[in-house]
């Protein structure tokens, strides 16, 4: 998987199947973590690839009326199961999925996390079966960039 962010600042996120890399050129840092331990990408990637089992993740799924969404789109709200919500690792308090009802394409994912943190991913101009060079999915650490161990406890990061 490869995501390139343009705003609010340039960022590059590459998952090569074993390692996830999150590169912020402005900060001259890259965070490296084993795929199994990278919580930042799991929910959006699982939803994008159709690998998310919403019945397993959600206590309930509601169709919500949300102002400002395009006509023909629907917004689904997932409230996490209580057992998951009570663990020490609360990934989210709510996930909203905006879907184009005519095509079934995902238009937006909004993930609400504890502490008032919100992550939002917007999608458009979907294209499938595009020929892409495999080098796009390998990350080479640029010279002079610090590598942060994303799998280490926060106080152990060097």
Helix count from the secondary structure assignment: 3
Strand order of the largest sheet: 1-2-3-4-10
Supply Rg: 17 Å
Number of strands: 10
The shape is: globular
Mean pLDDT: 81
Order of secondary-structure elements: EEEEHHEEHEEEE
Low-confidence stretches: 83-88, 154-158
Between the first and last Cα atoms, what is the distance in angstroms?
A: 27 Å
- Helix amount, in percent? 10-25%
Please indicate the count of domains: 2
Structural class: mainly beta
Largest β-sheet summary: 5 strands, mixed
Estimate what percentage of residues fall within beta strands.
Answer: 35-45%
Describe the structure.
There is one protein chain. This protein is mostly beta strands. The protein has 2 domains: 1-37 and 130-158, no CATH class; 54-126, no CATH class. Helices cover 12% and strands 39% of the residues. It contains 3 helices and 10 strands, in the order ββββααββαββββ. The chain has helices at 39-49, 54-57, 82-85, and strands spanning 2-5, 11-15, 19-24, 29-34, 58-64, 73-80, 94-100, 106-113, 117-122, 146-149. The strands form 2 sheets. Strands 1-2-3-4-10 form a 5-stranded mixed beta sheet, with no helix packed on it. Strands 5-6-7-8-9 form a 5-stranded antiparallel beta sheet. β8 and β9 (117-122) form a beta hairpin. It starts with a strand and ends in a 9-residue tail after the last strand. Mean pLDDT is 81; it is low at 83-88 and 154-158.
Properties at a glance:
158 residues, mainly beta, 2 domains, 5-stranded mixed sheet, 5-stranded antiparallel sheet, 39% strand, globular, disordered C terminus
């Amino acid at each position: 998987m490869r995501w390139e962010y343009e705003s609010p600042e340039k960022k590059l996120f590459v998952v090569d199947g074993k390692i996830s890399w999150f590169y912020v050129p402005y900060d001259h840092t890259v965070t490296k973590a084993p795929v199994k331990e990278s919580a930042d990408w799991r929910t959006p990637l699982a939803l994008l690839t159709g690998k998310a089992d919403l019945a397993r993740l959600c206590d309930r799924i509601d169709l919500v009326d949300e102002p400002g969404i395009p006509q023909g789109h629907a917004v689904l709200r997932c409230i996490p199961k209580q057992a998951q919500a009570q663990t020490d690792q609360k990934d989210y308090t709510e996930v909203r999925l905006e879907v184009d009802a005519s095509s079934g394409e995902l238009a937006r994912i909004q993930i609400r996390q504890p502490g008032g943190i919100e992550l939002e991913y917007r999608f458009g101009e979907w294209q499938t079966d595009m020929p892409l060079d495999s080098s796009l999915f390998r990350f080479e650490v640029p010279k002079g960039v610090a590598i942060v161990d994303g799998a280490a406890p926060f106080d152990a990061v060097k």
